[in-house]
Structure formats: structure tokens, C-alpha cells
């Protein structure tokens, strides 16, 4: 009995913070302390969501954002892993490229956005480049550190078996460095999402960020709030989904 | 007799270990130089590319102009001040909240879910909302940077204090330290490296958020605002100078922090190993 009470109390406590926020929100709008342009009532945010779903606007923006995310991520993360492995395995490549690599790393992706706008305009190409740049770095760094950290004897064994460079990559390097590389790829994905939202907030023809920016310009606080919840939820789901994939892959890999 | 340090290039030949980094440093310059040359050629070709690519000469001239007019120093000062505000306000709040969450299970239960819910939304995603609420002044920008600095410190302070070894706390209790002494003599010192790591992240995030918020608001002063204005006006030279300075300052800030934080960490290591 005491146990039940205690767990009830714990559940109540862990919801109390969020519940207080929601209640304060609802009460504020109920009492009309703020105009709806400043604090839209919860039901209006929900209504904006329903209207967005009905009209297909929301789906269109979602598809626009997610397809750019997918394209940029696949390109950026693949190049990142390839570059990281190459840099770890070849002294020559490392000595020629690491200077530039680390110099560019100092600049946050967002600072490149205006430059990329000047070079590529504001359509999909520009956004794919932004997402690609954001995905590239965590993937490259993770692959570089992981492959550098592989024990020397793995390569001795590969030498004994006279594995070709390709077989060495496929049967030794990739499986052995998989877990840390996957963690890097997950970081890449969340960085990519943040960068995409930033790019869309600044300039874009479509996408979730652009939807929020339009909402801001037209004082549609309900749309802005819905956008905040959506980008949070999508980021969360992407990370969760990747974690699940990670667990599946790592369990399947040889120890 | 000439010491090896003063020997300079003449000594390099006799010390292969000295030669290696110098050679690889030169190799590291090959790629950037190639890019610069290609860039300059594209700029000189003019036409459709002249807009996006600015010649090195033009870049140098713009750099001198922006420094001489006091424009660049002013923007740099604004951004640095914003980061300082963000770090001091957000950092203090972050450490206090993280400590409260680590020490009190009730605070942890109540604030934890709120913290993690807010954390899901990227910092810059709050910009349209804060723009609507607080307009286009300095306040919403500072708030975003404060938020960016606060969040990593909450997490790291929390983890650091939670990770204090129970044995250490027990020893403190045996020595009849009161809760305050226990916190300042046992818990805080052992959580310090974690908190410093949090501070390092906070510094990086605050800088990124500062540039981001200035770019996205696009008004007022700050390096980000300078970059964004440059983009709107099609001035690639100004944009590039901004980007280069963002990178240089990020590098300098990280360096400075490592210098300043190293004594704190070394002090802890000594204690640990004794």
C-alpha cells in the first residue's frame, strides 16, 4: 500500500512541472491577460494543427523539410565517414587535409548559411548543402577517432590473410569501428536537423522553419507555437529512432 | 653555444623530429592555397560568378575598410559582450538549477521533465516565438544566448554532482561535516571537472547561438548581423570577413578557456592521485 502511494506521489511530482506550465498557459489565455497574438490559447494551437493537416499545408512543409534532410544527411554523413576513415588510414591524406578540415570546423554551420545563400540561392540545393555540411563533421570526427583507435593487431591479422584494401575495409575496419561511428552518425542527424531548421527560418521557399517564420511575420502565434512543438517532436523522434537502429545493428555485429 | 631552441631552421636538418611537423604544416597549406587560387580565378572571370566569388584583392580591401571605419571592431565587441552576458547569467542559472536538481529529488522530479521537454527544441527554433514576444531589440537575442549557455551547464552540473562517489560523502559524514561543508568540501570539488566540461560546451553553444540569433534577427549590431546585412546587400566580401572572424574568435575562445580551466582541472588531478 505504501509502495503504491509512493509511486503515485512520484508520478504526480514528475508531471507537476509540465502540468503547472500548461495550467498557467491555459489560465492566462482564459483570463485574457495577454492578447492571442502574444499567447495563443492551447485550443487555438490545436486548431492550427488540425487546419494545417486538413489543408495539406503541414504535410507539404513536412515532406519538403524531411526530404531535404534525408538527401543532405545521406550525402554529408557518407562523405564524412569516408573522409574520416581515409584520414585515419592515410598519413598523406591527413597531412594534406587536416589543416583545412579543422579550420572550417571552427565556424558553426549557421555562420555559413548567408554565404551559401549567395552561392546557391534559397532553394533545395542550398538547404542540402547546409544539411550536408552539418552532417559531415560529427560523422568524419567519429569515424576518424574510431578507426585511429583500432588495435594494431587487427591489421596484422588482415595482413596475414592478405586481405585486399576493400575486403579490409568491409571485414575489419567497418565492423570494428561500428559502435562509435553510429554514435557519430546520430549526432550528425540531430545537428543536421538543427541546421535545416535554422536555414529555413532564415531563407527558404518552404519547410517547417519557413512555416514558423511566416507565422511570425503574420502574428500567428498559434502557428509559431505549433512549429516549436513540431520541431521538438521531430528532433526527438529522429534521435529515438536512430538509437533503436543503433541497438539493433550493434547487437548484430560481431563482438 | 647556440641552444637548440634558438637554432632555428639551421637545426631542423639535424633533428628529423623537428622537420616532420614543419613539412606536414606545409602540406596542410596546399589545399587551402589551391582553393584560394581557384576562388580568385573564378572571381576574375566575372560574369555570373562575380557575384558569389569576390577576388582576394577585394577581400583584403574590404577587411582594411571595415577595420578602419571601426565597423568590424564594433560588431565583434557587441557579439563578445552578448556571449559574456549569456555565459554569466545563463551559466549561473544553469549551475544553480543543476545543483538543485542533483541535491533535491523533489526538484529533480518537478523540473526534470520540463527541462528535457524544452531541450528537445533546438535553441534557434525559439527565435520566432521570442521575436513575437519581445520584439526586435537586444533582449530576445540575449535571452536566446542565455538559454544556450544554461542548458549544458544544468546537465553537466547535475551529472557531476550525481556522480560523486558515495564513499567520499560517507567520509565527509564520518568527519561530521555539516551539509554546507559537505557540499563545498566534498561534492563540489569532485563535480568540478564535469562542471568545467559543461562550461566549455556552454561557451561553444553560446557563441553559436549568438551568431545564429544575430543572423536570424538580421538587425542591430554584432558579427552575425554584419554577415546577414552583407548577404542581403550581396556583399560576399563582408560575408566572408564575418565568417572568418567567427571562426577565429571561436578558436581563440576555446584556447582561452582551456588555458584558464587547466589549473582547475590539474588541482583536482593532484588531489585525486594523492
Write the layout of secondary structure elements.
The complex is a heterodimer of chains A (255) and B (274).
Chain A: H1 2-31, H2 42-55, H3 57-89, H4 91-105, H5 109-120, H6 124-148, H7 152-160, H8 165-202, H9 208-217, H10 221-252
Chain B: H1 4-7, H2 9-12, H3 16-45, H4 56-68, H5 71-103, H6 105-119, H7 127-134, H8 138-162, H9 166-174, H10 179-217, H11 223-232, H12 236-273
Structure commentary:
The complex is a heterodimer of chains A (255) and B (274). Chain A has 255 residues and is mainly alpha-helical. Chain A has one domain (42-252): Orthogonal Bundle (MetI-like fold), CATH 1.10.3720. Chain A is 85% helix and 0% strand. Chain A contains 10 helices and no strands. Chain A is globular and about 75 Å long. Helices cover 83% and strands 0% of the residues of chain B. Chain B has a single domain, classed as MetI-like (MetI-like fold, Orthogonal Bundle), CATH 1.10.3720.10. Chain B is an all-alpha fold and 274 residues long. In chain B, 36% of the residues are buried. The two termini of chain B are 41 Å apart. At the A-B interface, helix 1, helix 4, helix 5, helix 8 and helix 9 of A face helix 3, helix 6, helix 7, helix 10 and helix 11 of B.
Describe the structure concisely for a colleague.
The complex is a heterodimer of chains A (255) and B (274). Chain A is mainly α.
Helical proportion of chain B? over 70%
Mean pLDDT of chain A: 87
Give the termini separation of chain A.
45 Å
Classify the helix fraction of chain A into a percent range: over 70%
The Rg value of chain A, from CA coordinates, equals 23 Å
Largest sheet of chain B, described in full? none
Q: Can you count the helices of chain A?
A: 10
pLDDT averaged over residues of chain B = 83
Question: Which architecture of chain A does the CATH hierarchy give at level 2?
Answer: Orthogonal Bundle
Largest interface: A-B, 53 and 54 residues
Write down the secondary-structure element order of chain A: HHHHHHHHHH
CATH class of chain A: Mainly Alpha
